[in-house]
Design goal:
mainly alpha; 230 residues; 11 helices; disordered N terminus; 47% helix
């Protein structure tokens, strides 16, 4: 197999438009990159680099905008508003006492301040969804205010109310996951299925009460302590 010596490339090729691109640096830099590919045994990569017209895009606003078009935000402002409007009007706030209704009113303003508020909330939710929250803040931001309620027949039911921002992020993720419910029906009826729990309960009751001719086993699993124990 014939190899290419980047130091003795043919003169016409050196000045060809495909090889020389001022935005990628000097001709020597590109020759060194090709030599590095050949030294690694990557002849395909060397040939691709040799004949490529690609160059590194400039670091400016236009390039950033083009990247955002190819990798859009994980959710739109419309999706954020839907998540906000899904809260009941009487929803309580978390440790910071910020109720969802306060953000609803702020984001419903059509002026510049309302748009800035909506954009700021959207940027914060993106940080949460990407898992880039600082470790020192996580115990607070993902914490909750806890209220202990007495059960009718004894015992305690803990009610945790988390930060509104974290609950917004959870609602957005839930809306994204609703599409998966089509693949899980009819085995999964608890999430994303309107009336699914009622349908499951009535079906289970009819199956349990039906006079079967053979021995059947009916298994019911009850979760305790917020799904911590069974």
């Amino acid at each position: 197999m014939q190899t290419i010596d980047p130091d003795v490339l043919p003169t016409p090729f050196l000045y060809s438009k495909k090889f020389y691109d001022s935005s990628q640096g000097s001709l020597l830099d590109k020759a060194k990159k090709i030599e590095s590919k050949l030294n690694d045994g990557d002849s395909t990569g060397a040939l691709r680099l040799l004949t490529s017209n690609d160059s590194v895009a400039p670091n400016n606003k236009e390039t950033l905008a083009a990247l955002f078009e190819k990798h859009p935000s994980p959710f739109t402002e419309e999706c954020l508003l839907r998540a906000l409007y899904s809260f009941p009007k009487s929803s309580a706030g978390g440790l910071d006492s910020l109720r969802p209704q306060i953000l609803n009113k702020a984001n419903s303003c059509k002026n510049e301040k309302g748009q800035r508020c909506l954009k700021s909330v959207q940027l914060l939710i993106q940080v949460l969804l990407k898992g880039k929250v600082a470790d020192t803040i996580c115990p607070i931001l993902y914490g909750a205010s806890l209220t202990a309620l007495k059960k009718k027949y004894g015992g305690i039911r803990p009610i945790a109310v988390g930060f509104t921002y974290r609950r917004i992020a959870s609602n957005i993720v839930s809306m994204k996951l609703r599409k998966a419910t089509e693949y899980l029906k009819p085995h999964q009826l608890g999430f994303g299925i309107r009336g699914g729990c009622e349908a499951g309960a009535h079906t289970a009751r009819r199956y349990f009460s039906y006079p079967h001719q053979e021995v059947k086993v009916f298994l019911k699993i009850d979760f305790k302590n917020a799904c911590e124990k069974m």
